[in-house]
Specification:
The protein is mainly beta and 142 residues long. It has one domain (2-139): Carboxypeptidase-like, regulatory domain (Immunoglobulin-like, Sandwich). The protein has helices spanning 2-17, 120-123, and strands at 30-39, 42-43, 48-53, 59-63, 69-72, 79-80, 82-89, 92-95, 104-107, 125-129, 132-135, 138-139. The strands form 3 sheets. Strands 1, 2, 5, 6, 11 and 12 form a 6-stranded mixed sheet that branches. Strands 4-3-7-10 form a 4-stranded antiparallel sheet. A two-stranded antiparallel sheet has the order 8-9. Strand 1 (30-39) and strand 2 (42-43) form a beta hairpin.
């Protein structure tokens, strides 16, 4: 369960880091990313796509919609241009730990979201974000 809690904390931190306010910071060119997530050609209908900029300096994430589509953007109008590592997380659910323990939070069981795509280290996926609108689809091979 500690691995799940660590992943949940990492996910929250990554999304929060990508959602900072504008202020007077210069983020350079900004882009958005839209696309569709499938597994074996069938849409992944829930979860989150998370991006982490290689070398640091940015992250972002978006909820995956019921048709498999997503749009990664930010309060500042986009995320900094660059190359991003990509991972996908199932939605979180309440987990019953037994009668003597309070419920905890874990990831929903999603056999169609292969385990290897749930961390940046194992997904092997990257995407290049350029200034403006970007489109990229992901087919997660089982």
């Amino acid at each position: 369960m500690k691995t799940t809690q660590t992943l949940l904390c990492s996910l929250a931190l990554l999304i929060a880091a990508g959602c900072g306010g504008g202020g007077d910071l210069d983020y350079g060119p900004l882009g958005t990313l839209s696309g569709k997530v499938t597994s074996g050609g069938n849409p992944i209908t829930e979860g989150t796509i998370v991006l982490e900029k290689q070398g640091g300096g940015g992250s972002g994430g978006a909820e995956i919609q019921s048709d498999g589509t997503f749009t990664v953007t930010d309060k500042i109008g986009g995320i900094p241009a660059g190359t991003y590592k990509v991972a996908f997380f199932p939605p979180t659910v309440e987990v019953d730990e037994g009668p003597n323990s309070p419920p905890s939070t874990g990831f929903k069981d999603m056999p169609n979201l292969p385990e290897k795509y749930r961390t940046f280290d194992t997904s092997g996926l990257t995407v290049e974000i350029k200034e403006g609108k970007n489109t990229h689809d992901f087919d997660l091979v089982p």
